[in-house]
Amino acid sequence: MDIVILLIPIAIILAGLAIWAFFWSVNNGQFDDLESPAHRILYDDDEDLIPEDARLDSAKDKTDRSDQEKN
Amino acid sequence: MCCPGCQAVAQAIVDGGLDNFYRHRDSQNADSELIRTNSSTRRKQELEFYDNPDIQASFVHDAGEGQREALLVIEGITCAACVWLLEKHLGAQPGVSTVNVNMTTHRARIRWRNEETRLSKLLAEIDRLGYQGHPYQPNREEQMLERERKQAVRRLGVAGVCMAQTMMLAAALYAGELSLSMDAHIVTLMNWASMVLATPVALYSSIPFYKAAWRDLQTRSLSMDVPVSLAILLAYLASAWSTISGSGDVYFESVTMFAFFLLVGRFLEMSARHRTGRAGNALLDLLPTSAIRLDGDREVLVPATQLRRGDRVLIKSGHTIPADGLVIEGHSSVDESALTGEYLPQSRSPGDQVIGGTLNIEHPLQIEVTETGSESRLSAIVRMLDRAQAEKPTVARIADQVASRFVAATLLTAAAVALFWYFHDPDRAFWITLSVLVVTCPCALSLATPTALTAATGTLRQRGMLISRGHVLESFASATHIVFDKTGTLTEGNLNIEEVRSISTLDSQSLLSIAAALESRSEHPIARAFRTHMAGAASDVQVHMGQGLSGRVDDTFYRIGRPEFAFPEAPPPQPEQKGLWLLLADSERPLGWFRLDDQIRSEAAQALQELQSLGLTPVMLTGDASDAAQKVASTLGIKQVFSGVSPEQKLEHLNRLSQQGAQIIMVGDGINDIPALAGARTSVAMASATDLAKTSADAVLIANDLLRLADSVRMARKTRTIIRENLSWALVYNLLALPAAAAGLVAPYWAAIGMSFSSLVVVGNAMRLSRRNRPAAQSQESTE
To answer: What is the Cα–Cα distance from B350 to B652, expressed in whole angstroms?
Structure first.
């Protein structure tokens, strides 16, 4: 059980590090916008990042969809 | 088609393969005026203005490697799709290296290479999408908001991290205590560790509570902040004492958890408050950024802020008047609806006064500036806003009323208990008194209101009502009167063709297309009503100030306008006395009548009916002095009408009503409503309102649908019931636990379990507010 004597201070140091990192990121402006990142993950705009051979042929349903949107 | 972006660029989006836009768009967007005003050539000149290095100096800086960086405020952003569209479109422009649009603050950070593109070109692209970019020049107030926000995030983060760690240690401590197998020195170590972790929460994260409590004590009132501060400080200090002295119990985990939950609630409330309006660009909406000054015969484009009294300014048609002044040349009509509520433009000729922020519609005007800056009419209204806000009656919250009695009772009991045990068993006196204070720790009590309010606010937001001040739900529930502005609130705020009456062989369809062709070149609000019927354009169109238009369609000469103008030989009598009638005639005979009116919102009648059935008395308060006000009121069944009132009088009327004991909700949108919105007990701004109106209101109707007002009142009443249930439960729990604690029968973990349990009951009860309404909200959304 004596290992706890070592582990608890380590836990406190880690918590301290977490707080330091958190302050750094707040000052860095990473918490300025809490809304759009939640939406950003849903954007399907990474098609050019998918390797050629892994792509599904989506050209057809894409035009279908844009037709629907127009209406 | 709903967003500013949608209408203008739907085609461009689809052509450019950006059709993802439509999948990320929210449904709650209001129509925007921006599209209409974007196209002018003046805007182009204005944009070129921003390429001037002197002007750029204040908001553009060098980012190195030949790149420049600017911060812009972008108007018209309503949802994530707007952000996506702006970032994609601007990022694809040549010479642009990074674009970052912040959805919360509506700010864009753009970095570009100056030799490849110019700022004016980027701003024009933003315009083309249907938004409007302005340079961002933070003022003091805005920097303060920014600091407040960052500070709150930090406090919340610290409380979160430390709470999690303390909880972990507490679980081990409880397990050890129950199995009686933990060594004493490990317990001591864990207590010390908990103390190290709880210290930042008690001494840093909780500072806002202490400050608020101190303020309350100075004004000799007891609000919820006082028991909260007492609980945090006393429990922390007592636990610290018992850790250092090695005797007694520790409550660090309760302290941290309690502080964290309350901070989360405060943080959400603050974000909502910051969201509704950004003080920094509030005035930007109202005044143009540049003006054409006449230096002798030369036209010089100058920033509107550089205008001085006595300057001669040229205002072309379709432009906003940059300062108060006197007309010295030209005849035109001026749309003053934003400031006065009059929905028809007023004619202005030399010698007449014009007000900065209003719109010149027909002909160029030359004015001499009489007032600028802080002396202008617009600033006077804004100043009135500050005063009204300062004098706004404070709303007594249920929680605070209960709190003040509760705190007094708890403190008295604790003192009595301490005294009793001091005489009977001085050794145990301190710990028993402490456990009384901890058991009655106002956890459940102080969570009772915020949790219910947070749940209700979240639900209402989904349904199109954004609440930015905490008292709104409580005052909605107790409201007796609901006061509406007319133009833009009960009505659409623009003219529509209500009726077409033919008095010749032509049918109404052909009458409409002739009229639309004649009106196609005009910028007058009347012409806008015909825009949907537009097929072709007329030739030789002439505008006759305040009379009408004449022109040639398919080689026939027509006139449209006042009857005396359209057919001067023998003007036929107007079909009805009331309303605005236009006559269309060719050179031989009159052809037909058009009746125009500011259309009443389609949902207004139903909304008012629902509000009345909820027991609210509707009142109309409008700056419009014409008989249109009475007509709208009688159509909607509003009995109390005050028309032709100035912004100051609006506020007076409200104050008089509340002196008679009415609890008022004020709903408005225009600049002339701003003082009333700020001074009313509760106020709601429409989504299409100016930024300044939204900032001064307590809530914003983002769905732009009056029916949501009735929904909100119902929701507020439900919330009030839940809050009362929560408060009674918390009081019952405290009354039961108090005697046990006073008798010295409560072990610390039982106190903690009881406290958590009562808090959970309260939170669970509050969650019913968001769950119960979900099916209804969904079915509504699907029909939209």
So the answer is: 33
| Per-residue tokens: B364 | 């160029």
CB-based burial of residue B239 (10 Å sphere; 0-12 exposed, 13-18 middle, 19+ buried)?
buried
pLDDT tens column, B333-381: 888 776 766 667 778 888 888 888 788 877 788 899 888 766 777 777 7
- Report the candidate in B149, B146, B167, B96 with the shortest Cα–Cα distance to residue B126: B96
Looking at the DSSP bridge assignments, the partners of residue B98 are B111
A15, A23, A39: residue with CB nearest B197:
A15
At a CB cut-off of 8 Å and minimum separation 6, what does B399 contact?
B224, B445, B446, B448, B449, B723, B727
C-alpha dist (Å) from residue B633 to B327, B344, B601, B638: 35, 18, 13, 5
pTM exceeds cut of 0.80: no
User: Tokens at residue B580, please?
Assistant: 């605005």
Q: Coil, strand or helix: which one is A1?
A: coil
Give whole-number Cα distances, A10 to A7, A21, B85, B290, in Å.
Answer: 5, 16, 47, 61
Q: Which of B769, B135, B53, B189 is nearest to B461 (CA)?
A: B769
Query: Chain B partners of A5 at a C-beta cutoff of 8 Å?
Result: 186, 189
**CA end-to-end distance (rounded Å), chain B:** 13
Disruptive mutation site among B15, B69, B74, B84 for chain A (greatest number of A CBs within 10 Å): B84
Nearest CA in chain A to B18: A45
Element spanning B217, H or E: helix B207-218
Which residue shows structure tokens 């967003």? B3
Strand partners, B64: B67
Give the Cα separation of A67 and B515 in Å (integer).
34
Chain A residues bordering chain B (beta-carbon distance below 8 Å):
1, 4-5, 8-9, 11-12, 15, 18-19, 22-23, 26-27, 31-36, 39-40, 42-45, 62, 65-66, 69-70
| Cβ(B4)–Cβ(B32) below 8 Å | yes
Q: Could you tell me if B703 and B687 are in contact, meaning their C-beta atoms sit under 8 angstroms apart? A: yes
DSSP SS3 for B364: coil
Q: Which residue of A has its CA nearest to B150?
A: A26
Name which of B98, B142, B161 to mutate to probe chain A: the one with the most chain A Cβ atoms within 10 A of its Cβ. Answer: B161
CA torsion angle B298 B299 B304 B307 (round to 10): 20
Q: How many residues does chain A have?
A: 71
- Give me the helix-helix angle, B4-15 and B80-91, nearest 10°: 50
Q: Is the dihedral of CA B740, B741, B747, B750 positive or negative?
A: positive
By Cβ distance, the residue of B19, B80, B154 closest to A65 is B19
Mind telling me how many Å the CA of B52 is from chain A's nearest CA? 30
- Residues B598-655 have pLDDT tens digits of 788 888 889 999 999 998 999 998 877 777 788 888 888 888 888 888 888 888 888 8
Comparing C-alpha atoms, which of B565, B533, B528 is closest to residue B546? B565
The predicted complex's ipTM stands at: 0.71
- B303-343 confidence digits (pLDDT tens): 777 788 888 888 887 778 888 889 988 888 888 776 766 66
Strands B617-621, B590-600: pairing kind: unpaired
Which token pair is B179? 């199995």
Catalytic residues of B: 485
Helix (H) or strand (E) holding B298: strand B298-303
- Contact B293/B307 with Cβ under 8 angstroms? yes
Give the closest-approach CA distance of A53 to chain B in angstroms: 21
The Cα B759–Cα B714 span in angstroms is 26
Element (H, E) at B709: helix B707-742
C-beta of residue B363 within 8 angstroms of C-beta of residue B331:
yes
Asked if B526 reaches chain A (Cβ–Cβ under 8 Å), the answer is: no
Whole-Å CA distances, B740 to B253, B286, B496, B748: 22, 64, 72, 12
